[in-house]
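Two proteins follow. First one:
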Amino acid sequence: PAIVPQGDDLPRMLQQELYRIQQALFDLDRPTSLTIIEETGLAADPAPTFVRIFDLGLGAVWEQPSGQFDSSTGVYVFGIEGLFNVYTSLVVPAAATPQVKSYVAALRVTFQFVDPGKPDIITNLTQSGLDDNELTVQGQILYPFTQGDSFFVEAAIYRVTEADVVCNASLQVHRISSIK
């Protein structure tokens, strides 16, 4: 048999349900999102040496709500649970004096979880090509995160043609839905 609310239970239950509806509509209107576009200098090494990117203190092009991304450390902390799409890319320009030698660009995204029983997820993305062409490495992950989970992005270039290169990096985070 169904439970029939008695006394003060009905207004309280109705208020809770209206709050859930209000929150769902708010999430549709203002989804959690972040966009960062940054030029970052990377040293080209004979072996991969990963360095943190998005930590130059430049801030985000768009962040809703603000305060989830720390531009001094390059760490994004999920402020709410949900199913998130995280996309990152790195564009390495063609060498100024190409020697038609191969090189590799790499991104490493490390996701850390507040649940101590859940191991970190490390996603490695690589792309190789010749130094006379622009090279793009990109990837995305769709994953359910809880409040307090975090991630950061690192990049590396290994080739022998040039010592340093200025790359264009981008990061986008979008909350797709709730997971509850």
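Second one, unrelated to the first:
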Amino acid sequence: EQMTVASSAEWLDFLKDGEKQSGASEARIRAAQDRLITEFPRSSEAFFILRERWSDQHPEPSAAASADEWQRYVRLSVGQYRELLRNFPYEYFIASYLFNDLSHLEGVPNSEIVAAGEQAIEVSDRYAGPSPSPREQVASAYLDHHIDPARTLQLLEAARQLKQSPRDRVFTEIPDYTP
């Protein structure tokens, strides 16, 4: 008897992984990935496939690479993160990566850094819940770039308050397991 399974991104990803484990050809695995991307273009599974493909096509420079090589790579990454964020807004960490890269690029106006920082906080809050981490990340970059000291203090105060919240303490405090 044949089992009927409704197609979903998770199911197609499972099948793709089975293809890999069975030693299928790269062409067959690529076809399984392409099907998943076509049928479920906004899924987390599609995101990870697209991100992996981009990374394979654009390897990071070596640690010994010149600053110019790193700047070129980071500029490419910024473009990729912007595209991914448009297509996968719920993958909140993309906004954080975009902000991080923008804050390390030479010549980026402070207004663009601020817009990306505020977006990173907003997206993280919407999809992962309020957390101190994005506020600390943004505040750190604001300090590095001498951006809006009053806003920097607001972010640090908000991060401090969030760190004391029951939600955050559950994830940051080490429980006492002694009997």
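SUMMARY FIELD: The two ends are 53 Å apart (CA to CA). Residues 121 and 134 are 6 Å apart (CA to CA).
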